[in-house]
Write a structure and sequence with these properties.
Order of helices and strands: HEEHEHHEEHHEEHHEEEHE
Number of helices: 9
Largest sheet: 7 strands, mixed
Strand content: 5-15%
Structural class: alpha/beta
Helix content: 25-40%
Length: 279
């Protein structure tokens, strides 16, 4: 066999091997813990109302890489709420188009919830034309869910309006929470006694370890650091990389998830906390 033919065969073999790895990569990542299939109890909250709130921020730093909400942190809860017969509205800090972190919609990372979103003109329209939180009465909802993603580090925890609206919802007996960077939106909220809502309460969110591992420390707020500083009892799980860990905390009407792996579970536990029944 001449050298040229050997090189052609080697190139073909490498291409085939690369194609196999590319095809298998999503399954490999899931086996490591990314976006696990939710196998817990599903709940129904017929005629209930849920408000999903996401970031309006679309860049890491000044002129940095595109970011926004992590896709599955919006899509997974949305479709789980819909499966529980809940009416769902989508809102953001400034209203209008919600930016999606493009990495989270990449072929290797996106979930079946994201695939469904890409074929769903109704949810796409809600994302493109999200409601502005200033214009919403949070007390009309049973569940207030805060989606995360790196963009949320820039606006959820800094929003006085969001803090005030969550304070009102909590006082009205509503269920609140979120996942990943979403719980930063709880920082300016108060409980019935006027104390920070998270003080003395068990919560979770993105760990400092995960921020360091992904080397995105440029963001102004890190969930574990900020929640601990506010007096929260912070809990988390760990893995060889925390991106693959999963943890959910329920403290009464407060339901939080550690990162993008927790969306479906948090949505169902929020429906349960709001009085939902098993389905």
């Amino acid at each position: 066999m001449n050298m040229r033919r050997r090189l052609v065969l080697l190139a073909a073999g490498l291409a085939a091997a690369s194609a196999l790895v590319v095809t298998a990569l999503p399954a490999i990542l899931q086996s490591l813990g990314l976006h696990p299939e939710f196998e817990g109890q599903h709940y129904l909250l017929p005629e209930g109302r849920a408000l999903i709130i996401a970031t309006s921020h679309d860049r890491l730093g000044e002129g940095g890489a595109e970011t926004g909400v992590a896709a599955s942190e919006l899509t997974a809860p949305y479709y789980e709420f819909k499966g529980g017969r809940v009416n769902v509205d989508i809102a953001s800090i400034r209203g209008g188009k919600i930016p999606f972190d493009p990495v989270t919609l990449s072929r290797f990372i996106r979930t079946h919830y994201d695939e469904r979103y890409l074929e769903d003109p109704v949810l796409q329209s809600k994302v493109q034309n999200s409601m502005r939180i200033d214009d919403i009465d949070f007390t009309r909802y049973d569940v207030i869910y805060l989606a995360g993603g790196w963009g949320a580090a820039y606006d959820l925890g800094q929003s006085e309006v969001l803090g005030r609206k969550i304070t009102e919802a909590w006082a009205a007996g509503k269920v609140v929470g979120g996942i990943c960077h979403g719980p930063l939106g709880l920082l300016r909220a108060k409980d019935e006694s006027g104390q920070p809502l998270v003080r003395g309460r068990r919560v979770t969110g993105v760990t400092d370890k995960q921020v360091a591992e992904l080397d995105i420390s440029i963001t102004p707020m890190h969930p574990e650091r900020e929640l601990r500083a506010a007096g929260a009892v912070f809990e988390s799980a760990t893995a060889f990389r925390d991106f693959f860990a999963n943890h959910v905390v329920v403290d009464g009407r407060l339901v939080t998830g550690q990162n993008q792996n927790a969306g479906a579970e948090v949505a169902n536990l929020m429906m349960k906390a709001a009085g939902g029944t098993r389905r």
